[in-house]
Amino acid sequence: MAERVARLASPYLTVEPGFSGPGAWQVIADARPPEDAVPESVTALGEVAVDYAVDHTRRHVFHLAPEGEAWVTQSLLRATRAVHRTAASRQGVLFLHAGLVELDGLGVALVGGSRAGKTSLIMAGVLRGSGVMVCNDDVSLTARPDGSGVLGVGWPRSVSVRLDTLDLLFGRDRARAVLASLTHPANRTLPVLRESGAEVHGTALVYPWEYADLLRTEIGRSTGVDALVHLSLADDPSEAGFAPVPPAERDGLLEKHVLALPNKHLNIFGHEPDHGTLTRTHDALTALPTFRFRYGFRDVLREVGRLADHLRARVPE
Predict the structure, then answer these.
(1) What is the side-by-side order of every strand in the sheet holding 60-65?
(2) How many angstroms separate the Cα of 31 from the Cα of each of 27, 41, 43, 63?
């Protein structure tokens, strides 16, 4: 099981044999929790509920359900990630709803909510041979202590990919073969989102190692951030464009996408941050070159090249 969790956690977290240190949280499967353990349930859209029991006194998190190797592995990874992200939050790390990519050698944070086009643009950059993904959807950021900028770090989280993105980038036949090969257990139930209209384009979850195999690429663990790009999809080609964000507007735009909690679920370990570090990171981010980029989804392979050209011309190396 440790080997399976290690594969899903790579390259962001490493799993090593040995005993945890005193006071460390432990994530446990296939064991009965004590009777006073607190029940916790994670219910993500389109997935089955994942049940835990938490022994706060001994700092144990028990996976209870569902059964099966795939779900147990996913559950252990999710709880482990939550423990580490919570610890990072206490240390003053800022979490931003953004993807992070090395695009033609520049570290670019692609800022935006769901359906802003982050995943499609990052995948297109990788396919063009000009991009290396660090993370797809939520990045942790810290101002470097020496004042030399901001470091962005990714986390072991599956990549949620629109089904029409797979069709667009790989063609329908290969996209179907890709879907059939994916191993995240939630992919069995996610089609209900499309059927219900909750996710009109459909979606699939791709583990980082599957992403690397599919795109024949490596995944970066971290990179310096050289620019912020606030991303959105254009409904009409005439709406597409690239523009700098004036310094006076950067703070407000950034605040819209700062995550108040370190995790989507399992924020149960205490996560109050070091506000001094948060402020330094926030100020360092708003000092970076910041842009808006609106692009047409169907032209994503060409548009990622345009974005790279704009950034090369405007961002110092």
Answers:
(1) 26-28, 60-65, 50-55, 38-42
(2) 11, 17, 22, 8
For 258-314, write each residue's pLDDT tens digit.
Answer: 999 999 999 999 998 877 889 999 999 999 999 999 999 999 999 999 999 999 999
73: tokens are 């592995």
Question: Which region, left, alpha or beta, applies to residue 105 given φ > 0 means left and ψ of -120 to 50 means alpha?
Answer: left
Give every CB contact of residue 193 below 8 A, 6+ residues apart in sequence.
Answer: 45, 46, 199, 202, 203
Asked whether 274 and 91 are in contact (CB, 8 A), the reply is yes
Distance of alpha carbon 48 from alpha carbon 45, whole angstroms: 8
The Cα 302–Cα 317 span in angstroms is: 23
Nearest in space to 201 (alpha carbons), one of 133, 111, 117: 117
Identity at 16, one-letter amino acid code: E
Q: What is the pLDDT of residues 5-38, one digit of tens each?
A: 999 999 999 999 888 888 899 999 999 999 999 9
How many helices (DSSP H) and strands (DSSP E) are in the chain? 10, 15
**Proportion of the chain in helix, strand, coil states, percent, rounded to 5:** 35, 25, 35
Contact 300, 239 (CB under 8 A): no
Instruction: Respond yes or no on whether the N-terminal peptide bond of residue 237 is cis (omega within 30° of 0).
Output: no
CB atoms within 10 A of CB 179: 16
Phi, psi of 67 (to 5 degrees): -85, 175
Assess contact for 84 and 9: CB atoms under 8 A. no
∠ CA 294-295-300, rounded to 5°: 150
